[in-house]
Design brief:
Blueprint: H1 2-23, H2 41-61, H3 69-74, H4 80-100, H5 121-147
Helix pairs in contact: 1-4, 1-5, 2-4, 2-5
Length: 167
């Protein structure tokens, strides 16, 4: 059950990143830097894809994904379509990984040392949710700043929680 909840929240937030990327009125704006920000929305979206495909897809789902973290931050002017395709691939990798994961797996050590330490899988998954939410908020603010559009894309949609869906 907890794995279903974690899966649902991660996928919800990936869909929200997708909505944010789609909401930019001009594709070039995804790559703008303003106000001392060091990462564009495009880089943050690529970073989230790399992070989740590595830690959830490759490590838990054994997808074979090989991460290039430096490229996540150094890439420029990647098309919106390519970013959206990466988000879709990330969602598929997450689904495949969670198909393999059981609730008892969350108590087991994560299959890769984290900062030199052994961390329980459940603890690492909660961290990944927080990391995703942090960058999703940054993308939302970036979009609002560069487009001047203050409308929400319902980034953290309570209506998409597993216990609320279908009510």
């Amino acid at each position: 059950m907890i794995t279903d909840t974690i899966r649902s929240i991660v996928l919800r937030d990936i869909r929200a990143v997708r909505r944010e990327v789609e909401a930019y009125s001009n594709e070039a704006m995804l790559w703008e830097l303003r106000g001392g920000a060091t990462n564009s929305a495009g880089n943050l979206a690529l970073h989230l894809c790399g992070n989740l495909q590595h830690f959830i897809g490759a490590r838990l789902g054994q997808t074979g994904y090989v991460r290039n973290r430096d490229l996540e931050f150094s890439s420029r002017n990647v098309s919106r379509d390519k970013i959206l395709a990466e988000l879709d691939a990330t969602a598929r990798a997450i689904d495949a990984a969670f198909d393999r994961l059981t609730d008892s797996d969350v108590a087991k050590p994560f299959p890769e040392p984290i900062n030199g330490a052994t961390v329980p899988t459940g603890e690492w998954l909660v961290h990944l949710i927080a990391h995703l939410g942090y960058h999703l908020g940054q993308i939302d603010y970036h979009r609002r700043m560069v487009t001047g559009d203050s409308r929400t894309v319902d980034a953290v949609a309570v209506k998409e929680l597993p216990s609320v869906v279908g009510r």
